[in-house]
Amino acid sequence: MVNYYTTIQSILNYTRMFFDILIMWLLLYYTIKIVRNNSRTIQIFKGIVLILVIKAVANIFGLNTVGWIADMFVSWGFIAVIIIFQPEIRSLLEKLGKSNVFSRISTLSGNEKEHLVDELVKAVMILSKDQTGALISLEQSHSLNDYVKTGTPMNSMVTAELLTSIFVTSTPLHDGAVIIQGDRLACASAYFPPTNQELPSRYGARHRAAIGISEITDSVTIVVSEETGNISIAEGGQITTVSKKELRDYLLRVVCNEETVVREKNTKTQNRKSYFVIDEPQLVVEKEIETKKNEKGLLNKIAVKKQDGGESAEADKKNAEHKGNLFSGIFNKKKETEVLADRLSELEKEEENIKLPKKKKKKAPSSSMFEEPEILEQQIAAQEAEKKAQAEAEAAPEEPVQAAVIEVLEIKTAQSEDEAKAKKKPARTRKPKDSEESSETKAKRSRKKTEEKPAEDKEAPIAETSEKAGKENAESPVKAGAAADITAENQDHSPIDDVKLEFSASEEVNDHSLEEAVNSADQEGSDKHEE
Ligand SMILES: Nc1ncnc2c1ncn2[C@@H]1O[C@H](COP(=O)(O)OP(=O)(O)OP(=O)(O)O)[C@@H](O)[C@H]1O
Predict the structure, then answer these.
(1) Least enclosed by CB within 10 Å: which of 102, 194, 272, 324?
(2) Secondary structure tally for the chain: helices H, strands E
(3) Would residue 477 count as lying in a domain?
(4) What 8-state DSSP symbol labels residue 473?
(5) pLDDT digit string (tens) for 174-216?
(6) How many folded domains does the chain comprise?
(7) Distance 204 CA to ligand 1 centre (A)
């Protein structure tokens, strides 16, 4: 009797020990998992380990003060860790609270599960082909009821027709996500909290939302890109671009819980992206982390049903090399892939029966549409001002000539009127000769002269001014000609002569009118100068 009692007692003790170790192991496992998935926690974990090492070293060598400080850190560190990891702890507890032991999906029969997978694959294939954006989340053990509330409740059977209709862009329900609970389409237009991870710019709001929901729940989210038609799966904060076949394999595993074969060979560590792997993983270089190829990540979970009879490792390797991506190596069963291919081609045929409405071609936005309205207004105003200035310049071609004359007058105002009168005669006699010359010839002559003769002390400002006027007006024969008149004569005559030439270009100018012109031009020049 005593023996029986002690045996039961020892069995109970062993059971207790077993559960004790199991719970501790689970705690350790999940702690390491949380630490490893978060770069912030890795840093903090390293810090804690460092303090423990310092404490041990201090104890060994009898460094009392260092040991005391390390002790303080350890005893208060517990509270610090709780404060620092508050968001992580909260989400962990939330997950525990919301997890169902029996998820809706697990209560479905085998046929129902397979039907669900087929309908999903068919819908995604159509949406991908049509490049219609979609976001479909499959509830697992963690309830998505909170997110169902954010959308439009539907509670209908999952069919490819319904799914594709929802995401047609002209429908009111297309914006947001569809949530599937079990084999029911719970809601459309649901809103998911987007991730805060730093992602490449090509991933927009839809992909962010998919990663976001996969971070806080154990749901599996399928994303169809509107831009590329690519299909991606988000799970556990990771997103992976998959092919149609890979999508089906993955869903079979997730929904039907088919026994899978995880690749066992090639256990060497290799660089793999932390959360992004596209069809050609070698092209992706962002945020690489060291992971084991055979570890149970998202990629490795995509495997096929286990069957009797094996295929040689060589064939598997060849297959992997042929496909050239991470998914390829995991398919161990040739027969199985053939069966899958058959089912896929069947689905493709069925998919052809569903036609989506033709998309309206959107007008590509011009770059100016993205600019600020104020900047746009400023640009328009500047353009108008430029046009106005051009129109004015065209309407008043003589203005530069007048300006040049005024400049000449300003420089030469010191010269006496008598001198000007004395030089009137030759100017008048020369006038017909000048007027005979074409304005272009004058311009050429003026430029030549200016180049040949460097301006003399007295004449320099005039020459410069004339040259400037000539250059400015080189494009316009009228302006150039007028400027040349002044330039040419400046070399031999006084500025008053030039003025006379200018103003008597087409008609006879008498002394009186010339004086008046000189005076008025002088007045105008001084006014402008004042301005
Ligand atoms: N937080 C969210 N929850 C649910 N759906 C969202 C959320 N954010 C965006 N979406 C959906 O994504 C659409 C916008 O996608 P966006 O073009 O920004 O994403 P994307 O990741 O660049 O994908 P695509 O390649 O399809 O363009 C929205 O019209 C909406 O339907």
Answers:
(1) 102
(2) 21, 10
(3) no
(4) T
(5) 999 999 998 899 999 999 999 988 888 888 899 999 999 998 8
(6) 2
(7) 6
In a domain, 165, yes or no: yes
Distance 91 CA to ligand 1 centre (A): 24
- Ligand 1 pocket by C-beta < 6 Å: which residues? 133, 135, 175-177, 191-192, 194, 203-207, 209, 225-227
Contacts of 225 (CB under 8 A, 6+ apart): 131, 133, 206, 207, 231, 232
* Cα–Cα dist 198/275, whole Å: 10
Do 135 and 238 reside in the same domain of the chain?
A: yes
Q: 94: which 2 tokens?
A: 């939330």
Do 249 and 118 lie in one domain? The reply is yes
What is the phi/psi pair of residue 272, to 5°? -135, 150
Tens of pLDDT, residue by residue over 55-74, are 889 889 988 898 888 888 88
Helix, strand, coil percentages, rounded to 5, for the chain: 60, 10, 30
DSSP string computed for 114-159: HHHHHHHHHHHHHHHHTT--EEEEE--SB--HHHHTTSEEEEEE--
Looking at the structure, tell me whether residues 200 and 77 fall in a common domain: no
Residue 329 lies in a domain: no
Atom 15 of ligand 1, nearest CA residue: 206
Distances from the Cα of 23 to the Cα of 26, 288, 292, angstroms: 5, 32, 26
Cβ neighbours, 10 Å, residue 55? 19
Residues 70 and 133 occupy one common structural domain = no
Domain ends where: 239, 256, 273?
256
Do 79 and 133 share a domain, yes or no? no
ipTM over 0.90: yes
Give, using CA atoms, the residue closest to atom 25 of ligand 1: 225
Residues 118 and 247 in one domain: yes
